[in-house]
Design brief:
The protein has 94 residues and is mainly α. The chain has one domain (3-93). It is built from three helices and no strands. The longest helix has 61 residues, at 33-93.
């Protein structure tokens, strides 16, 4: 097996360095076909899991950023609404 089958389209930024190193080491050892297939399957599952977790983390970070922005807009809107309320009260009193 080659590194390409174990790490298809892998970017060093996408997977942890240790996982890439493990894939390279697994590619160099020769095992019986059944064992090799089991290890390849397990490694592929781990790689998929790491990628999925990174995508989820990116989505959560993006959602948090959007939430922070929304809160800033709401705080601004609340402040303006309070000022308008106070101005209207002042006008009504005069």
């Amino acid at each position: 097996m080659t590194n390409q089958t174990r790490l298809p389209g892998t970017n060093s930024d996408e997977l942890p360095r240790e996982l890439i190193e493990l894939g390279r080491k697994l590619a160099t050892i020769q095992l019986p076909d059944a064992s090799q297939k089991d290890i390849d399957t397990a490694y592929s599952r781990v790689v998929d899991s790491v990628r999925r977790r990174r995508r989820i983390l990116a989505l959560v970070q993006e959602a948090l950023s959007q939430l922070r922005l929304d809160i800033k807009y709401l705080m601004f809107d609340l402040d303006v609404t309070r000022k308008e309320r106070d101005e209207l009260r002042e006008r009504l009193e005069n």
